[in-house]
Automatic annotation (TrEMBL):
Residues 1-213 form the tRNA (adenine(58)-N(1))-methyltransferase catalytic subunit TRM61 C-terminal domain. Its EC number is 2.1.1.220. Transmembrane segments: none annotated. It is found in: Nucleus. Keywords: Methyltransferase, Nucleus, S-adenosyl-L-methionine, Transferase, tRNA processing. It comes from Bursaphelenchus xylophilus. GO terms for molecular function: tRNA (adenine(58)-N1)-methyltransferase activity. It catalyses: an adenosine in mRNA + S-adenosyl-L-methionine = an N(1)-methyladenosine in mRNA + S-adenosyl-L-homocysteine + H(+). InterPro entries: SAM-dependent_MTases_sf, TRM61_C, tRNA_MeTrfase_Gcd14. It comes from the Eukaryota. This is tRNA (adenine(58)-N(1))-methyltransferase. GO terms for cellular component: nucleus; tRNA (m1A) methyltransferase complex. GO terms for biological process: tRNA methylation.
Length: 217
């Protein structure tokens, strides 16, 4: 979803801040292709060293360029070159100005940010609006589990038929009992339908994915 929101195509130059595990960094490297670049930044040295090692091991050392850097203070590695920026920061609103400086302003640019708290997303949206971004949208991400069931659905007439059938079974001979059971089986087969149900309680941590567009100038 993040890659789609960033509108990445092969050959693009992308900036990322908040390398973390490097899983998204690898996805971005695949998306930009052999002629693209991913400049990833993190303030934790172990994360930077880890992505350097993994990039070499996975054949992406020519595409992934890591840096130990706080982009809210020092900005991004590149200026006026990238087409998309992804932020995973405690205060993404503080990185907006530096993201604009990293954009290639001759083309339309995309910014996407992940925030675990709605207040971070609200502050970011306000800042993006101040800097003339358009199409500002926030998606709430909530983990939900669904379960597929095939229940048997009865109505009042079914219950009356069931009562009558039980009386008949008690009265009649064994061959009538077998006949009634066969009829019930056929009836139940016709009264089944698919149903999607979720558990009543699903504790989960929400997240907020904000995207916006900056037009060329």
């Amino acid at each position: 979803m993040i890659i789609n929101l960033l509108d990445i195509v092969p050959g693009d130059i992308v900036c990322e801040s908040g390398t973390g595990s490097g899983s998204l960094t690898h996805g971005l490297a695949v998306a930009v292709g052999a002629h693209g670049k991913v400049y990833t930044h993190d303030i934790e040295e172990p994360q930077v060293k880890k992505i350097e090692t993994e990039a070499k091991a996975h054949g992406f050392s020519d595409r992934i360029i890591p840096a130990l850097r706080d982009v809210t203070q020092a900005g991004f590695q590149v200026q006026g070159q990238c087409s998309a920026v992804f932020l995973d920061l405690p205060a993404p609103c503080l990185a907006v100005a530096n993201a604009i400086a990293a954009f290639d302003r001759s083309r339309v640019s995309r910014l996407v940010s992940f925030s675990p708290c709605v207040e971070q997303a609200q502050d970011l949206c306000a800042t993006l609006s101040e800097y003339d971004f358009i199409n500002i949208r926030t998606i709430e991400l909530i983990g939900t589990t669904y379960k597929a069931e095939t229940p048997i659905i009865y109505d009042i007439s079914d219950m009356e038929k069931s009562k009558s059938s039980r009386k008949t079974i008690r009265r009649n001979a064994q061959n009538e009992i077998i006949s009634a059971n066969e009829s019930a089986t056929q009836y139940n087969d016709k009264k089944t339908s698919a149903l999607i149900a979720s558990p009543d309680k699903q504790p989960s941590h929400a997240g907020f994915l904000t995207s916006a567009t900056l037009l060329s100038r």
